[in-house]
Specification:
This protein is an alpha/beta fold. Helices cover 44% and strands 14% of the residues. Helix 1 packs across helix 3. It has 13 helices and 12 strands.
Length: 340
């Protein structure tokens, strides 16, 4: 194994002091430009690697942000990450990504791991099964800032970035009612998680305001897998009378369900009008194009990261407001438009 090159090796080669080499590597401006160039050129020639870890330990800062996700394989999460990375890169921070795979136990382990990696702050979205925030006490007690997004515990005082899921659920259901739908299925995930519980509340409120009786048999609670979407489609096909509207709280699941209903002879939107959620790319590719709720993931990522880094740099305080709401809107396309 080759020896790790140190500043002492560079100093010996150039017949300079280690202190001078250190200043040159850090471009401190104290030494001349010509000496700095000699040092940087020699460092590159020898294959020197700057020891950020040791330097950061001395400064008590890692310039690293932890990002804890409930999943990785969704367009929404990808766009959130793009937004976070845009802001952190510009501010000179690296990110460490961990994901729970919807496991509460894995989430606990990841939180502990990120704490021991000395991240300066944490951005987190909770797993389906997360029961409480006790495992984040490591961060809270050390006053390491944490901002939650999307999947959050709204009963806590911790800062979180969300959309108005209740309103979005209402808008989607109200739109289907305005298109003449009276038997509207809600296909969603665990109602214990804030985003799905609130979208369900919006659904029930819209039915109530329209004078349509709530029917628990029309609420299908599944996981967000392709298999569950196919299973839901077959349950809808067996319903008597068949539903005429479908609100799905995830675009990919909506697209899979729609395709299966079409394969079994249902016309969209004539037989069943459909609205999804997230405005993923698939909503514009599927035929007919899918009506959906626009959920601006990139904006959410940027706003979350900007608030966290502003707090770390002392230019803002995330403790002043514990709720930041991102704008969202209904996008109507052919999958739900019975009344052109």
């Amino acid at each position: 194994m080759s020896k790790e090159i140190t500043i002492y090796d560079i100093a010996k080669e150039l017949k300079l002091s280690a202190a001078t080499v250190s200043r040159g590597l850090n471009s401190s401006g104290i030494i001349s430009k010509s000496t700095t160039k000699r040092i940087l050129d020699k460092a590159e020639e020898l294959g020197y690697r700057h020891n950020n870890f040791a330097s950061n330990l001395r400064k008590q800062k890692s310039h690293t942000i932890g990002v804890l996700l409930h999943e990785l394989n969704s367009n929404f999460i990808t766009s959130v990450l793009a937004g976070i990375e845009n802001v952190t890169r510009e501010a000179g921070y690296d990110i460490i990504i961990a994901h729970s795979g919807e496991s509460y136990e894995k989430e606990i382990a990841n939180v502990t791991n990120l704490f021991h990696k000395r991240v300066d702050g944490l951005i987190a979205s909770l797993a389906f099964g997360t029961k409480n925030l006790d495992h984040f006490k490591l961060f809270f007690e050390k006053k390491i800032p944490v901002i939650f997004f999307d999947r959050v515990d709204e009963n806590s005082d911790n800062t979180h970035v969300i959309i108005d899921n209740n309103r979005c659920g209402y808008l989607a259901t109200q739109h289907l009612i305005e298109q003449g739908c009276k038997r509207i299925v809600l296909l969603t995930a665990s109602l214990k998680r804030n985003v799905y519980g609130q979208r369900h509340r919006g659904y029930t409120d819209a039915l109530y305001d329209a004078g349509i009786e709530y029917n628990k048999n029309l609420v299908l609670v599944k996981d967000l897998s392709e298999e569950s979407a196919l299973e839901a489609a077959h349950e809808i096909l067996k319903m008597k009378p068949r539903p005429d509207g479908l609100f799905v709280t995830n675009d990919f699941i909506a697209a899979v369900c729609m395709q299966e209903l079409k394969r079994n002879g249902m016309k969209i939107p004539e037989d069943i009008a459909i609205v999804g959620f997230n405005n993923d790319a698939i909503s514009k590719i599927i035929e007919p194009q899918l009506s959906t709720i626009d959920y601006p993931g990139k904006d959410m990522g940027e706003i979350t990261a900007r608030n966290l880094i502003g707090h770390l740099k002392g230019v803002s305080n995330i403790g002043i407001t514990n709720r930041i709401i991102i704008k969202s809107a209904l996008i109507t396309r052919d999958s739900s438009l019975r009344k052109k």
